[in-house]
Amino acid sequence: MFRISSLERSAEALLEAAFPDGLSIPIDVDYVAEAYLNLEIIPIPGLEANYSVWGSFWKTAEGQYRLIIDQDVMDDKPNLYRFTLGEEIAHYVLHRSHFAEVEDVKQACQVQKELQADLHHMERNAKWFSSAILMPSQVVRDEANRTYGTLVSHVGYGDTDAIVKKLAGLLARQFRVSPQAMRIRMDNHPCKVTEAVERAVTGHHADLWEERC
Question: Which residues in the chain land under pLDDT 50?
């Protein structure tokens, strides 16, 4: 089980190495997988229907890692595709040894299902790592501050819950993730955007971090 701080540092280091000239949003997660990590992304028709997973990976006899994604997810569900790709990158970075004996799609999916069972700690690690890749904490905080200031200038400070919900939706579109994924990221360390919004709305501040020491 990795500590959250360790997952955050690993994700940050990966992004810094993949994008040495700086980050832009949405994060190009395909570039991270294909160009930086040299993972071959292969869409598989019926992957979820046949094996109950959206993605997995394995290493070929030639030494090439193949990352497989359900084709319907890749073609029709962009937010889910990006998050799934982020999770598979996480498994590749964090848990590659568990796939060492995998030789084909069926075996890859079986290992994936084992990791997913009862939200196994490795699956939780992968979900957190994927969030950290797609929604880098400092970038989220910066964009949240900018977007929040514009938002309250139009709607005022009347309804904290509505402001948080609207902010999550606006940021989700910027980062190309689901509103649910963004809200979880906003609620938790190290972003803690929701907490900052609640303080700022109460104090009628247009800057989320105005009260920072």
Answer: 119, 212-213
